[in-house]
Amino acid sequence: MSGKERRELKREQRDAVKQALNDYQDADTNTILLVILAILLPPVAVLVHQGELNSKFWIALLLTLLFYLPGLIYALLVIFGNA
């Protein structure tokens, strides 16, 4: 492998690492914002996370209307991927 090829490979690897770090930071920021939204409005947080009106949204809405705390817990479970 020539010096030019080696430099090009290192540059590509460096760019890939930078892109992966940016993606990780964006995902972390999105999760924090979803948690804040879940504290304020649990069904809306589930809707934003899922991207569509599905059964998880309706369950979160029903739980939030009945009692706030179960709706909040369910929304956090959906956001963190356990539901």
UniProtKB/TrEMBL annotation:
It is found in: Membrane. Its main location: membrane. One of its GO terms (cellular component) is membrane. The keyword Endoplasmic reticulum does not apply. Pfam families: Pmp3. The chain crosses the membrane at residues 32-51, 57-80. InterPro entries: PMP3. Keywords: Membrane, Transmembrane, Transmembrane helix. Belongs to the UPF0057 (PMP3) family. PANTHER family: HYDROPHOBIC PROTEIN RCI2 LOW TEMPERATURE AND SALT RESPONSIVE PROTEIN LTI6 -RELATED, UPF0057 MEMBRANE PROTEIN ZK632.10-RELATED. This is YqaE/Pmp3 family membrane protein. It comes from Neolewinella litorea.
